[in-house]
Amino acid sequence: MKSCEIAVVGAGLAGLYAAWALNAAGIDFLVVEARNRLGGRIFSADASGQPSDDGFDLGPSWYWPAMQPAMASLISDFGLQSFAQNSEGDVVFERMSREGPQRYSPQMPDQGSMRLSGGTAAAVRAVSRELSAERILLGSKVTAMSLGGSSVRLTVQGDGGETTTIEARHVIAALPPRLLEASVTFDPPQDDGTAKRWRNTATWMAPHAKFFAIYDRPFWRTNGLSGTAQSMVGPLVEIHDATTASGKAAIFGFIGVPAEQRTTVGEDVLKAACVSQLVRLFGPAAGDPVATLLKDWAADPLTATVADLVGGGHPAVLDDAWVTGPWNGRLSLAGSETSPTEPGYLSGAVTAAQRAVSPYLSK
Q: How far is CA 362 from CA 354, 356, 358, in A?
């Protein structure tokens, strides 16, 4: 059995930031992560789909410093480099299949969308750099929590099916509330109202899928296009330039096909349809990518539940308590969806983590 003062469940940006703050304050902690990598929904991958220090963002890509001071402060504090999302050039709009795509010169500039050099995972690497590897348990899925005396006992299942136990005085659950409710058994159970609120909180990114076409050069820029497109035909409905700060050329889009239909169609067919659409929008050069990537978050059991197979927007900001009853004071929620500002966004993850750790830092 392992023991600690605070167990942090989840090693996405929220969990890692919480662990970083606890570590800086000299508070004993363990991070317990079901995946075999850090980052959660932050996943920057190379052309083969493997984690990379200079990758394409299969999860969140952008932040807006003017509107999201928490994320802007993190980037400044950790000395990270950022660059503006490319918006120079015309936008393509595809209204219906019987009409050809139309080019438009945007009347308003981009609203300050920024990306991180090295991919969004650069933030994960920076925050986790000061954390001892011995304090992070990867491939360790929390399946149950029980209250007992002055501690919380966590049942943890390893990759090989083996079960271990962690005893902590407090727990910070840094994962989406809906996923927490669906994957962890509580003893005593959460109050009905609390469990219902967790279930009804949409998990950002969970219903979505992103497709990337990677090229040897950003040919669309040469042709006076920004790489931005909107389509009512599909399968991609929103498309952007995904070229990295180092110059690796790519276009990405959000797939508009519902999650259940994506499963039926299959990845190869869906990828081929996406490439064909890019040819319609950007010309013949789009038909020869050096690689393609597809990340379907709805098919990721460590992100999505059955409830996420239907679309969902950003979670709403509510003042109700996330934890009630006997678990109040022993369990805190720090997933981005629980943030009082920018829930679901990267900035929301930072704010939620700050709020979750603040009671322990003030003691």
A: 12, 12, 6
